[in-house]
Amino acid sequence: MATAQVREWTGLQQFPAQTQTALHSLLGRLRQENMESLTVLVLGKGGVGKSSTVNSMVGERVAVVSAFQSETLRPIQCSRSRAGFTLNIIDTPGLVEGGCVNDQALDIIRRFLLNKTIDAVLYVDRLDGYRVDNLDKQVIRAIARNFGPQIWRLALVVLTHAQLSPPDGVEYSDFVARRSAALTDAIRQEAGFKKAEDTVPVVLVENSGRCNTNTGGEKILPDGTVWLPNLVERIVEIATGPAKSLLIDKKLIEGPNANQRGKLWIPLLLLFQYFFVLKPIQSRINRDIEDERQNRPQWEVRAEQFRRTSMLEEERADEQAITDAFKQDNLDDLGELGDQFEGLDDDDDEF
């Protein structure tokens, strides 16, 4: 896959001054960690706002977004450079097609990511989703199956459409907490998180141009949070956290070699079968034979002895008959030889 062209991050200048300052500070934290680049993978179902979130982060329209057109059918990498630091954001097609997990899309994404190192993952969904259904769980499992469970340790749940009005009688903070808990609990269960592991963090995003702003022109959520610097800060925390970046290598793409899988266990399995399966069976058979031989009734023992005696006598009789026949043949041959010599003597007398 060809390397994406790195361009100057001009979109950074389009943000309000305070947002620019916050972003520069966060990029400085990465430089302090000796990181010269940051690669963010964006995953999720279709129509949840993945491409819109990418555009909001870059400050440019790098991914086509339209309510009347299908989203991108292949991954797109956007690379922007600022003060020697490179930000790579990979937008991907939706993971659901026709009410099922789109395995073809997952395969395309895997091959696009070959030899790339992922520092953080944004799993995008909508805040105004009222429940986590079985399809959501299937998508979570599919991501873990295709990229390994480790990818969820680099994940950040991004809930879009955050500027909403909750149902009557429900506080905004309560609605956010319930929606976040339902999704993160599903991730913990389907991705195999241990009890001691931290829950996947959640951030809220509002990409709409109708998003409220503060006095400085920064986009804010209903609770007053300036969401873009908050999103980038969480990404930086993941990239500099304990979880190691994930290299998408050929082994991950093609899977393990079935011919090599488990070869080291073959000798051990053979030894186990010999000592713990074959040997006990053989010992048991020998014991059964010995027990049967010792516990036979006397009449059967005498019958066996009689058969052996009869067989021995028959063998001896056969040997004697063969010996007698052999002797008789030898005597006949000697008699014929003697007649021949007598004939020779008669001939000599005539001369």
From TrEMBL:
Gene Ontology MF terms: GTP binding; hydrolase activity
Disordered: annotated segments: 331-351
Chief place of localization: plastid
Pfam families: AIG1
Domain of life assignment: Eukaryota
Binding, GTP: 47-52, 66-71, 161, 206-207
Biased composition (Acidic residues): 342-351
Cellular location(s): Plastid, Chloroplast outer membrane
Residues annotated to bind Mg(2+): 51, 69
Gene Ontology BP, a term: intracellular protein transport
Family listed: Belongs to the TRAFAC class TrmE-Era-EngA-EngB-Septin-like GTPase superfamily. AIG1/Toc34/Toc159-like paraseptin GTPase family. TOC34 subfamily.
Protein name, UniProt field: Translocase of chloroplast
Organism: Riccia fluitans
